[in-house]
Specification:
The complex is a heterodimer. By secondary structure, chain A is α/β, with parallel strands linked by helices. Chain A is built from 11 helices and 10 strands. Chain B folds into 2 domains: 137 residues, no CATH class; 218 residues, MetI-like (MetI-like fold). The chains are: A alpha/beta, B mainly alpha. The complex binds adenosine-5'-triphosphate and magnesium ion.
């Protein structure tokens, strides 16, 4: 797995220097740690028994910038995987690869293989529309449509023809809003613009919009960064509930949240997947020095 | 402890020291901005004042109220009430007779001709039309407001100074005397000039109207709008949302930007060579004018439409794509509605430009003297700005006020269009 072609080593000088700094300063002292060069091998078990999604040697480039470097990772069925790491390490970038959202960025180039149920999602012949209906996404910044609250939720089910009648659609809207913990707040003003809600309400609206399509995998990019503790608790409850039927990948900056909601945790650093393992293991017994520094608050 | 104190105190001092200068700079900038706005307003006011003061008199027209005898012996000598015969009758005689009666002292041939020239050559038609509509008038006496000649009109309106030395004015003393007598009799009337709005062009200023040019402008702009809006928006959507970004699309973009800067007369030449000479479309027709103006407006619309598509936040596209909308659905359900206000503004600006465009239309023959009002985009016609150009070229004093009045109408059209654009934009923007 760790054997790579020379051509793939397109790391910019800048990142090499940055990596070397870290290596010199911190990494070497910890037993079991290795420098973050291009041959770096993720610590921990990247593979699982029943993967829903499986990534092999994923690289992402923004123009010349190598944002994700040789990442292997499985995402298990009916499990929540948390992705943590300092700002700018590539968590969002990696998450966006999983439903080909990076296609919308012209300069973004993804190599490697990502499989969803044994189907290569980067296959040229693959249609991204059903893929994105299957792999839903909640974005880092709330982005409701500039339409009514009702329309925001109803849009997905409508274009996919998921509801046969208006009554069914109403039901989907109510159920989705209720799951996202927003129903009570907005049930009397469904016809008002979604953009008129508060930031936290908008984010929950976006969560409701995503689950209205009933995807199998849900990608969440810091879904709680704009929420108060009560709303956060609701969303975490929702995630826990969804886990029974869905597969979830969540990016978060909150260690507590990662510990609370996830079963597996992946730690990213400057585009490398440094360490992955059971959440309890990562938080109680990190094996890489960088992971330890990050979760104990000494870094990032 | 003391160090942070010192540094904050120092920051405050520095801030306060620079504050005055910063506010002074802000005030200066505001004043400059205000000055620029006022200067602009001043010029606009001057322009309007000039045009309105010259043009408003064209909206009324001098008439002479005369008691006309619809003499059956002249109109319908054999009493058969045959409309075709009546139409050919000598209404000139009918119109002149009451004038001759008012001035029995005028006897010589030359003087009589001068006297009759006080009536417009349109006056007999006026009477003929009355009879054609209402044959019962034959044999009766009616007081009719007959259109006065433009020279009379100018004297009555004071545009020709009666007290100026005779050599300096177009109208001689004799006629001034007649006009004064008619005025003393109270038969000179100024009435609202409906002919100005309904008539086509004419060699006689008192009969000339902008009806034909307005209809021509309407058909031309209709063709332009129907072609340039859909084509422009489709091109912009394709280039912005679907086309791959490569050397070809870069080349297209550069070319579109260049086209926007091509002098409009070049489009006129192109239209002449292509649409008229090659495709054999009719000369002077609003259809060809519309095609030429479409070529001219397209770059404007495409550039504005692309800019407004670009200003739609990418997060909206991601949101739609994220729930599994196809590219087409994303564009049509979410991006286009948000970009529409900007596109409409661009389109209206383009259309306003097209409305005021003269040069390319000269090339395709829309400058011809056309009396008939066009009934469709294939009839020969002219447009408002060309009409302004034609009248501005005419020597008669009465055309001066008509030129200004035509400009006023053109401006009214522009203001109406821009108001429409603002209303449309509000409409679309209210949908968040
Ligand atoms: N559209 C883009 N164009 C160019 N570079 C980008 C783009 N998006 C992200 N990057 C770069 O890729 C790297 C990873 O960015 P990413 O957004 O994935 O970080 P992140 O881990 O999600 O950070 P955060 O926690 O702050 O959200 C960063 O260095 C960023 O500068
Ligand atoms: Mg991010």
């Amino acid at each position: 797995m760790a054997v790579r072609d020379e051509e793939n080593d397109m790391t910019t000088a800048e990142t090499v220097i940055a990596d070397a700094d870290l290596v010199g300063a911190k990494v070497r002292s910890k037993a079991g740690s290795r420098p973050l060069d291009n041959d770096f091998k993720t610590i921990g078990e990247v593979r699982v028994n029943d993967p829903r999604m499986s990534c092999t040697d994923v690289n992402v480039f923004y123009g010349d910038k190598h944002a994700i470097k040789h990442v292997d990772l499985d995402i298990a069925q009916n499990q929540v995987i948390a992705m943590i790491g300092p700002s700018g390490c590539g968590k969002s970038t990696f998450l966006r690869c999983l439903n080909r959202m990076n296609d919308t960025i012209d300069i973004c180039n993804v190599t490697g293989e990502i499989r969803l149920d044994e189907v290569d999602i980067y296959d040229r012949k693959l249609d991204v529309v059903p893929l994105r209906a299957q792999v839903g996404m909640v974005f880092q910044k709330p982005n409701p449509f500039p339409k009514s609250i009702y329309e925001n939720i109803a849009y997905g089910p409508r274009i996919h023809g998921l509801a046969a009648s208006r009554a069914e659609l109403d039901e989907v809207v109510e159920r989705s809003l209720a799951k996202a913990g927003l129903w009570e707040e907005v049930k009397d003003r469904l016809d008002q613009p979604g953009t008129g809600l508060s930031g936290g309400q908008q984010q929950r609206l976006c969560i409701a919009r995503t689950i209205a399509v009933d995807p199998e995998v849900i990608l969440m990019d810091e879904p709680c960064s704009a929420l108060d503790p009560i709303a956060t608790a609701k969303v975490e409850e929702l995630i826990d509930e969804l886990r029974e039927n869905y597969t979830i990948a969540i990016v978060t900056h909150s260690m507590q949240q990662a510990a609370r909601v996830s079963q597996r945790t992946a730690y990213f650093h400057l585009g490398h997947l440094v360490e992955v393992g059971d959440t309890t293991q990562i938080f109680t017994n990190p094996r890489h020095k960088l992971t330890e520094d990050y979760i104990t608050g000494r870094f990032g | 402890m003391s160090e942070p104190d010192k540094s904050t105190a120092r920051t405050i001092d520095i801030v306060e020291a620079s504050l005055k200068r910063r506010y002074a700079r802000e005030r200066r900038f505001k004043l400059m901005g205000l000055g620029a706005v006022l200067l602009g307003l001043l010029f606009v006011t001057l322009l309007f004042f000039d045009i309105v003061s010259k043009g408003y008199t064209a909206f009324v027209q001098t008439h002479i109220a005369l008691e006309v005898y619809f003499d059956p012996a002249v109109i319908d000598p054999d009493g058969k009430r045959d409309m075709a015969e009546i139409a050919r009758a000598d209404f000139r005689k009918i119109a002149r007779e009451p004038l001759a009666k008012l001035f029995p002292e005028v006897t010589s041939r030359g003087d009589k001709r001068a006297l009759y020239s006080m009536l417009s050559s349109g006056a007999p038609y006026q009477l003929s039309k009355m009879v054609m509509k209402e044959p019962g008038l034959i044999g009766t006496r009616q007081v009719v407001d007959l259109v006065a000649d433009d020279d009379v009109d100018m004297v009555v309106k004071g545009n020709i100074d009666r007290n100026a030395p005779a050599a300096d004015r177009r109208v001689n003393d004799q006629m001034i005397g007649w006009i004064s007598k008619l005025e003393a009799d109270g038969v000179v009337k100024k009435k609202f000039n409906t002919r100005f709005f309904t008539n086509g062009d004419s060699r006689e200023p008192e009969l000339a109207g902008i009806g034909g040019a307005a209809a021509g402008s309407f058909y031309t702009l209709l063709v332009t709008l129907l072609l340039s809006f859909p084509i422009g928006v489709a091109a912009a959507v394709y280039l912005e949302e679907f086309a791959p970004k490569n050397r070809w699309t870069d080349l297209i973009e550069v070319n579109i930007n260049n086209l926007a800067a091509v002098p409009s007369i070049v489009f006129g030449l192109l239209g002449l060579a292509m649409f008229i000479n090659l495709f054999g479309l009719p000369r002077s027709a609003p259809l060809v004018g519309g095609l030429v103006l479409t070529l001219m407006t397209l770059p404007t619309i495409i550039i504005a439409a692309r800019a407004s598509l670009k200003s739609v936040p990418p997060s909206i596209r991601e949101a739609a794509l994220g729930v599994g909308a196809s590219k087409m659905q994303t564009v049509f359900h979410h991006v286009l509605p948000l970009a529409m206000p900007g596109m409409l503004t661009g389109t209206i600006i383009g259309m306003a430009q097209a409305l005021g465009e003269t040069a390319p239309l000269l090339m395709i023959g829309m400058v011809a003297f056309i009396v008939d009002i066009p009934g469709g985009p294939l009839d020969p016609s002219t447009v408002l700005p060309v009409q302004v150009y034609l009248w501005a070229d005419s020597p008669e004093r009465a055309f001066v006020e008509r030129t200004s009045a035509a400009i006023l109408v053109l401006l009214a059209f522009l203001i109406a269009m821009n108001t429409f654009a603002v209303i449309m934009r509000r409409r679309f923007e209210r949908r968040w």
